[in-house]
Amino acid sequence: MSASIRERTPEAASADIKNSRQSGDITPFNTTLLTCGMVESIEKACKSLKHAGTEAVPPMKNGSGMGCSCFISGVNMTPNLPFEGTIKVHTDGSITLFTGASDIGQGSNTVLAQIAAEGLGVGLEDIRVIAADTAITPLEAGSYSSRVTVMSGTAVKAAAHEVRMAFLEVAAHMLEASIDDIELRDKRAFVRGSPDRGVTYSELVRYAYSKSRLPITGKGTFYPKDEGIGRPWVPKERGDDLTPNYSFGTAVAEVNVDRETGQIKVLKSTHAHDCGFAINPMSVEGQIEGSGVGGQGFALYEGLFYERGSVLNPSFLNYYVPTSLDAPGPSDTTSIIVETLDPKGPYGAKEAGEGTMISPGPAIANAFFAATGLEIRELPITPDKVISALEDSDENA
C-alpha cells in the first residue's frame, strides 16, 4: 500500500483495505485465522497520524507512507522438546514458578508470573520466578521466534490450573461446599455469592499441608505437535501450520528527504499491532517502540557491503544501527495496541516482539515514494541509492 496518507480518515482508509486479511480466512496451509486485527490496525494507525503531511523547505521534501505485516507466534523449531512450567507452593505460602524460558530483556519473567498469578488468584508480588537454571528448571530451546508468551505461557497456565484445582478441592472441604461454587480471588477462597464465607490464602495452604502432608505442585506442558503444528518451517500436511496464531500490524511513517545529500530522516511514526491480548500493556508498548526503531534500522541503515568477498563493515563502528538521535522523539512516536483475544494463546495473547519490525520498511519506502515519486525496491535505502535514483530521474525527465 503506497502513496500519501495526508489527511486520511478511517473511511477513506477503508477503501485501501478491501484485500486485507480477515478473521476466518484460510491460510495456504489450509488452517483458519481465528483472529486477525489487520483492518483495525490500519484504521487506527491512519487515524492517529493526523499531523502527517507537514511541508518542507526545498530542497527538502516530506512524504508519508504505510506498510502492513503479519508474523508468527513461535515456530516449532524443536518438535521433540516440549514447553514446560512447574509451580510449587511452599509451606509458608510462597509460590515459585520454574520455567526454562530465558528472559533476554523482553520481560518474559514478568509475563509468565502474571499468567501464574491470574490462574491462582494471587498477586504478581506473590510469584517468585526461577528461569533458565538448567539444574532445576525444565529444558527449553531458547527465546526466539516470538514464542515465549504463547508457548511457555500456555504451559505455565496449565501448571497454574493444576495447582488451582488442588486449592479448590481443599477449600471445598474446608467450607463444606461444592468445588464448582468456590472462587479463588484476591488471596482468598470463598463461596460464590457469599464472600464472607471464606478462608484466606494462608489458611488454605496451612490446611492443605496439615492434611495431605504432600507438596502442592502443578506441572503444565505444551506440545506444539498437539496443536496441529508440523515440523520446523515445513508443515507435514495440509491442515498443519507453522504456529499457533499470527499477529498483524501496520506502520505509518512521515519522512524528510534531503534531495542534495540523499539523507532520509523519519520525522514521525505510528505502529498499531495486533498482539491478541496484552497481558502486560507497558511491556507490549516497549516492544512495539523498540521493534519499530529496529525496522527503521533495516529500512535505512543496516546493510553489509562487500568487495572481492571481504565485508567492508564488519563491526558496529561502520555497520550503522539507529540510535536515539535517529529515531523520532517521544512526542512523534505512537504505539497502539490492538487486541483480538486469540483462543490459542494464554488469556488470548499472541506475539508482540518481532512482528513490529516488518512494517516500517515498506512504510518508509512508500513515504519516500510519496515525497519523490521514485521507487527504491532494495533495502536499506541509503543516501547513495537516493542520489542515484534522483539523478536517473532528472536525466530521464
General description of the model:
This protein has 397 residues and is α+β, with helices and mostly antiparallel strands. It is 29% helix and 22% strand. It has helices spanning 10-14, 38-48, 108-120, 148-175, 201-212, 281-300, 360-372, 383-396; strands at 60-72, 83-89, 95-99, 127-131, 182-185, 188-191, 194-200, 216-222, 246-258, 264-274, 306-307, 310-311, 333-338. The strands form four sheets. Strands 1-9-10-13 form a four-stranded mixed beta sheet, with helices on both faces. Strands 4-3-2-8 form a four-stranded mixed beta sheet. The protein starts with 9 loop residues before the first helix and ends with a helix. The model is unreliable at 1-12 (pLDDT under 50).
How do the strands and helices of this protein lay out in sequence?
Layout: H1 10-14, H2 38-48, E1 60-72, E2 83-89, E3 95-99, H3 108-120, E4 127-131, H4 148-175, E5 182-185, E6 188-191, E7 194-200, H5 201-212, E8 216-222, E9 246-258, E10 264-274, H6 281-300, E11 306-307, E12 310-311, E13 333-338, H7 360-372, H8 383-396
Parallel strand pairs: 3-4, 10-13
Antiparallel strand pairs: 1-9, 2-3, 2-8, 5-6, 6-7, 9-10, 11-12
